[in-house]
């Protein structure tokens, strides 16, 4: 990461509210079972949690520490080093209410792979029903 700018995949999205955006972008956890819960109930809870719509739609295993929800074009532009990349982003920015930055180091595995081994990623992220892929920046 040179001069404070980090490489990231950028997505645009349209959410009605900030809460709706966070529900999609952030991992969601059910309340933890009470201490009186059986081992089976606790194991079942662990298997169901967390849910993470962003990772599920993209089809990647991801680290949520390197995913950021941004609501303003100015904040996205501040993350982009190259003037030409800033111009590219600015030409598309008005189409979206929210932006999602996924660090290039956040994606560590492909859920679509049939291999049992950890492999180098062979595909880039892509648009889904909810989000539009705007490209790899920096």
UniProtKB/TrEMBL annotation:
It comes from Pseudomonas poae. This is Immunity protein 22.
């Amino acid at each position: 990461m040179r001069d404070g700018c980090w490489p990231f995949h950028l997505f645009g999205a349209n959410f009605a509210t900030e809460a709706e955006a966070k529900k999609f972008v952030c991992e969601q956890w059910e309340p933890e079972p009470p201490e009186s819960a059986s081992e089976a109930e606790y194991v079942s809870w662990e298997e169901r949690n967390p849910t993470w719509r962003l990772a599920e739609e993209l089809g990647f295993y991801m680290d949520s520490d390197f995913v950021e929800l941004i609501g303003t074009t100015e904040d996205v532009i501040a993350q982009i080093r190259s003037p030409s990349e800033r111009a590219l982003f600015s030409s598309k920015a008005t189409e979206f209410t929210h932006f999602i930055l996924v660090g290039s180091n956040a994606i560590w595995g492909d859920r679509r792979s049939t291999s049992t081994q950890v492999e180098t990623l062979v595909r880039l992220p892509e648009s889904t029903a909810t989000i539009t892929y705007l490209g790899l920046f920096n």
